[in-house]
Amino acid sequence: MTAGIFDKQRDPRRVRELAAAIKSVVTRPWKIMEICGGQTHAILHYGLDQLLPPEVELIHGPGCPVCVTSLEAIDSALQIAGQPGVIFTSFGDMLRVPGSRQDLFSARAAGADVRVVTSPLDAVSIAQQNPDKQVVFFAIGFETTVPVIAASILHAQRNQVSNFSILPANVLVPPAMHAILSSPDNQVNAFLAAGHVCAIMGYWEYEPIAQAYNCPIAVTGFEPADLLEGILLVLRQLESGTASVVNAYGRAVIREGNQSAQQMISQVFQAVDRNWRGIGTIPLSGLGLRPEYSNFNSFERFKLEPLAVAESPLCIAGQVLRGNAKPTDCPAFARECTPQTPLGAPMVSAEGACAAYHRYHKAVA
Amino acid sequence: MSPEELPSMQGPVCPLPISQRDTVVIGHGSGGVLTHQLIRDLFQKHLNSPRLRAGNDAAAIELPASAPEGLRLVTSTDAHIVTPLSFPGGDIGRLAVCGTVNDVSMLGAEVRYLTATFILEEGLPLDELEAVVASMADAAAEAKVEIVAADTKVTEKGQCDKLFISTTGIGFAPASRRIAGDQAAEGDLVLLSGPVGNHGVAVAEARGNLGIRTAIRSDVAPLNGMIAALLQAAPGTHVLRDPTRGGLATTLVEIARQSGVDIALEEESIPVDPPVRKACELLGLDPLYMANEGKLIAIVPAHEEQAALSALNAHPLGKQAAVIGRVLGKSAGRLWLRTSLGTTRVLDMLAGAMLPRIC
After folding, report:
1. Is the ipTM of this complex over 0.90?
2. Do residues A91 and A116 make contact, with C-beta atoms less than 8 angstroms apart?
3. B26-53+71-174 adopts what CATH topology?
4. Which terminal residue of chain A, N or C, has fewer Cβ atoms less than 10 Å from its own Cβ?
């Protein structure tokens, strides 16, 4: 391996030191939830769970944006993508997520023009190059992806790109944390907050949550040493009975976050109630377009009817996403449900807990 | 045909059909004059095996002098489609030669001959086609193989993506040679001839899928020369395989399952070029699952480890060759990766297409 920007956070000696420090502070069992699917992926990719003492259990949170996107949103996407004259654009891993009947890959195979983009700004360019087509971007993701989606709307408006619209399905982290902590069967003692979300939003929003639920929160990055440091910082608090927000990702996050990005978000979007796949509707947990940008809303442009949808009866994704079950607890895991034949969204994205278990976990035979 | 396109009558002359064209037209597939022109002026200019020039329906080839224990004929066929036709480090022509040469070589055979079928889309610029054919000729010369038979078909526009090439390879191996995917045995060492991921990233970038610009080039190359050197030094080699689609991890899972053994890799010993590592990191891709077209996995018994490694390192394509893991005992066939942190994880086959992650 060669010198890179993450070397310090991957240095085996530093990782061993942090693992030893964690062992030395823990006296009791604790359950820590990492919010973000990127963190779940990194934990299993590096086998970090193998470095923790048995008292510390990591619970995988709802932070896989692909996983929590509602079935209705996916079915709406499929409905739009199937229409003639439409170019449907999306982040890549959304294409394999099953809707009620099919996924965007099968829609493409059936003749729909579905394209993978790495930025919604590319979708605006596609719209400019194809003025006779309607170009739709599937706006999924947490706060991390929202600024560039807002920027694409503003860019389209400035350049009078009238054939571009978005299917709004973005979600917000703090309402999900409230929903988890206030649930009667909550098992979470502490959170690792998602570093990339906090790079945009800061972490001032989490301070009232830590206080209200007496729940330590560490803003945490994605490399092995980042994750272990976040775990160490919440464990110290849990063992000493304190609960505050600490920043273990100082190289990317400040308390106030990226204010110009936040300003762009609030210019274009407003908080709305949103249905999370497997969890249900959480009040004010999503972002919808403000009325002055409603002409960029694909729902309105395509005059979609509300859809009746149905999940697979075998899938326990809801329990997994709430942290009440591990992927391996599911009777369909690695049997009916595999990355090639996903029944639920967490088996699809590399960030999904079920897919990460399927790829990396020792328990898989 | 609109009135403007009709040939204008200039007295009593018969309008001649256009004879000089710069794109493929349906007539190139007719078997008539245009087909012959295309073969003579474009294909034979570059592919000039006497057997091909003879213009017969088939090519006769001589069998090599037999080895003491007899010879086996080894053959493989491979279709090549890639967008764009040309990418940093190679093109579809080089790919079509190297892909099949490498496949035949993986049973330890000496590759001698190739045949090629070209499916051309109406409208393909002839100079693009010629560049590809010239590149095939160069790659065949580099691999020291002869293209002995070829065929051309033309499809209507939209029925194929510019140009598809299918090649079949023929080689010979001593009848006693038992190199195959099911031969990996406990205690064997896993060698890799060089860094992985370059081809996959180069093609994805050329396709404009990555949204970033790098200087990464495809590694597409014929491996038969390096394999000959390896087999001279390590004649007891158990498995040879090139980790193409699905990458190193998928290929090793295949071998583990075929042989019914577990294989353990050391993450730190797997060579990956820094730009490939960085591009993959940025996009949420894993170099262990990215395609290669010029890399070799060799699984050799422990007593041949040093000889095999030295032979690979001495070849220009194997300078960065390394021992990356070893074969454990009999099992269901799993691939383990020991990370630089001392933890382990299971590597599975690539599921579906490689997709960039959202964040």
Report:
1. no
2. yes
3. 60s Ribosomal Protein L30; Chain: A; (3.30.1330)
4. C
